[in-house]
Design goal:
about 425 residues, alpha+beta, 2 domains, 14 helices, elongated
């Protein structure tokens, strides 16, 4: 029998019991809708979690730290000489000591905010501060004047009407804390300076770290602020070294390309330092989401298997009701294989209808849940829109094909029962 003839016969057979077929297809629709909704939720959460890693250049960064609290023969100091050596490695764009200071007061007019200050090199952006995240202005310029980059939230809290208004303005920084001295002790110091705002950035909501409300300063500026070298002072007290020999507690190395990450990290480890990359964290996170995807897909598959039992019941009833029809098919020359294909086609059509209906149901359910989640988030003070479901094309296609495949498998037993019908007995009985 030709394929189109089989399809037409299958459609004709299904039309004889429209209510039964519709209810069976509805079961597949609900099951496939649940499957695609759960997997789309896991994919949406994963996609949202990976945005900062992919769009902000965080996968090009290596965090470096000494192996021990103080330098020994086996654990070299992390100092300026070490950073110069790292910066000379092939594939390294910049190596910069980690400077940050908490409790920095920043003032503009009558507005004063207390924030974290972080130090960045002038030549290459670090910590995800790439051109894509600037909402006004840009990165540090080579000019010698003190410069600063504000987060968008900080700019608004300081009273600026917009990010554009903040660029070019002058704000006052006040820092206080421990400062390294020439002697064996260190003193508490306070320092004020005025800086020019050259840029305003706005990071994604899931960007890790304290940068949601922070001020970014050039390394050469922040290293002279009180409190930024507190850990170096402690190292000096423990080791008895001169302040210049205390070393840094950490540094950040940025590579020129993703492909340079592994060899550069290996070279730094060979120098005797500990390293940490966000790529490893991303892989761990992806592993977690793979298990999450498999778990949710398994739950949806169970629902599809239950729907498949409904298909078995529907087709078995159809075989019993159409014994005379099956006998006639065999009497006019239809083979057992033709009958198997006919009933498998009917099962596949039910699965296909249910899979397509599941796509629509899954999208509607996820749309409703997303609206509800955003409404609740807005009541809790979250202003950003949450996209918690993702529907890539492969998921849509896989859901339909998987629903059809489960349905075809469910139709195997009824199809074999139909093929074993004795035409003589069925026609004589009727």
């Amino acid at each position: 029998m030709r394929i189109w003839s089989i399809i037409l016969l299958a459609l004709g057979g299904l039309r004889r019991t429209p209510l039964r077929v519709a209810l069976t297809a509805l079961g597949v629709t609900i099951a496939s809708g649940a499957l695609i909704s759960m997997v789309a939720f896991a994919l949406g959460i994963q996609e949202r979690a990976e945005i900062p890693f992919k769009t902000l250049g965080l996968l090009d960064i290596i965090q470096v730290s000494p192996k021990k609290g103080e330098a020994t023969d086996d654990a070299p100091m992390l100092d300026d000489d070490a950073l110069e050596e790292m910066e000379s490695l092939p594939g390294v764009a910049v190596a910069c000591p980690d400077f940050r200071a908490a409790g920095i007061k920043i003032s503009c007019g009558e507005k004063t905010e207390t924030v974290m200050a972080l130090g960045l090199p002038r030549q290459v952006p670090l910590l995800g501060v790439t051109p894509e995240v600037f909402v006004a202005g840009g990165y540090f310029s080579p000019a010698e004047v003190p410069q600063a980059i504000l987060s968008n939230r900080l700019a608004l809290d300081l009273g600026f009407d917009s990010a554009e208004d903040a660029v070019g303005s002058t704000v006052t920084l006040e820092a206080s804390g421990l400062s390294p001295q020439e002697s064996a002790t260190f003193t508490f110091d306070r320092k004020k300076l005025q800086v020019t705002v050259v840029g305003v950035y706005d990071l994604p909501d899931m960007m890790p770290g304290p940068m949601g409300k922070a001020v970014l300063l050039p390394v050469e500026l922040i290293r002279d602020l009180p409190g930024t070298q507190f850990e170096r002072a402690l190292e000096r007290l423990k080791s008895g070294r001169d302040p210049a020999e205390a070393g840094y507690s950490g540094a950040t190395v940025r590579v020129s390309h993703h492909s340079d990450l592994a060899p550069v990290e290996k070279a730094i480890q060979d120098m005797g330092y500990k390293t940490r990359t966000l790529l490893g964290q991303l892989e761990d996170m992806r592993t977690f989401f793979v298990f999450m995807d498999v778990l949710l897909a398994a739950v949806g598959t169970v629902a599809l298997v239950v729907a498949g039992l409904g298909i078995i019941n529907t087709l078995l009833m159809s075989v019993l009701e159409r014994r005379q029809e099956i006998g006639i098919y065999k009497a006019i020359g239809a083979s057992d294989g033709d009958l198997v294909v006919l009933f498998l086609t009917e099962a596949g059509i039910i699965g296909l209808m249910g899979g397509l209906g599941g796509l629509l149901l899954g999208r509607v359910v996820s749309w409703g849940l997303e609206i509800g989640a955003n409404a609740y988030a807005h009541r809790q003070g979250v202003t950003a829109h949450l996209d918690v479901f993702a529907f890539p094309f492969w998921l849509l296609a896989a859901t339909v094909l998987f629903s059809a495949a489960i349905s075809v498998l469910a139709g195997v037993y009824p199809a074999l029962r139909a093929a074993r019908v004795d035409p003589i007995q069925s026609l004589r009985r009727e």
